[in-house]
Design a protein that fits this description.
This protein is mainly β. The chain contains 3 helices and 12 strands, in the order ββββαββααββββββ. The strands form 3 sheets. It has a 6-stranded antiparallel sheet with strand order 1-12-3-10-6-5. The radius of gyration is 17 Å and the shape is globular. It starts with a strand and ends in a 14-residue tail after the last strand. The relative contact order is 0.35. The structure holds zinc ion. Zinc ion (ZN) binds next to loops.
């Protein structure tokens, strides 16, 4: 694999990037216990987006990990999970938003949020805030009680853990370092993102003509 681009997301921020089919995206938790919300849209038609519902339907589990395919709202593969060093992520809950903090936590005044950070990062690609669906909440640890009650626990990720995804189509990707206290065990940390080519790193010596 060859590293094409590296991004360091400061705590409570977001970014967007373009990825080509066959390239890889690595979401890294550099310090541990930090969630990263991820969305993606087909590059040639952004009304096709990464779908929680379709993905859970076809995987037949809410616990997505190595080997699972993540589908679009049009049931086309968008991503394949190539390697997952944590094994617990959430694809049920929406990105934290100003309304999340107001309704769930009674926050008054402005609170940074994944929704606002995604909206700002995706705007230059022509993607409107209303188009942002349920996010793949990488490293988010949601426990489900037998009667269906959800509880948000500390992420299981430790420093250096990562999720490696292969793009199955050309896409615009939004990604964050999550802003919600409860999701990140009470503190806000950075997230590192790597865009990789699946081609091996070219060795200068190996390209020499063999004459
Ligand atoms: Zn968040």
């Amino acid at each position: 694999m060859t590293l094409l681009t590296q991004m360091h997301l400061e705590p409570q921020t977001g970014a967007a990037l373009s990825i080509a089919s066959g390239q890889l995206l690595r979401i890294i938790d550099p310090l541990g216990e930090q969630v990263s919300d991820l969305v993606s849209f087909a590059r040639d038609d952004t009304s096709e987006w990464l779908s929680s519902g379709r993905t859970i339907d076809y995987a037949n589990t809410i616990y997505l990990t190595t080997g699972h395919t993540l589908y679009s709202n049009r049931s086309r593969p968008m991503w394949t999970i190539i390697r997952d060093t944590v094994g617990r992520h959430d694809f049920l809950l929406t990105p934290c938003s100003p309304d999340t903090f107001r309704i769930l936590y009674g926050t008054t005044g402005h609170h940074p949020s994944c929704f606002e950070n995604l909206a700002a990062a995706l705007a230059p690609f022509g993607i409107a805030p209303n188009a942002i669906p349920t996010t793949l909440n990488v490293f988010m640890n949601v426990e489900i009680a037998p009667l269906g009650e959800l509880s948000i626990r500390a992420p299981r990720s430790r420093a250096g853990d990562y999720l490696l995804l292969r793009a199955e189509m050309d896409m615009i990707v939004g990604v964050t370092a999550c802003s919600a206290e409860l999701s990140n065990n009470g503190s806000f940390k950075p997230i590192d993102v790597e865009l990789l080519s699946s081609e091996p790193q070219r060795d200068a010596g190996a390209t020499r003509a063999s004459v």
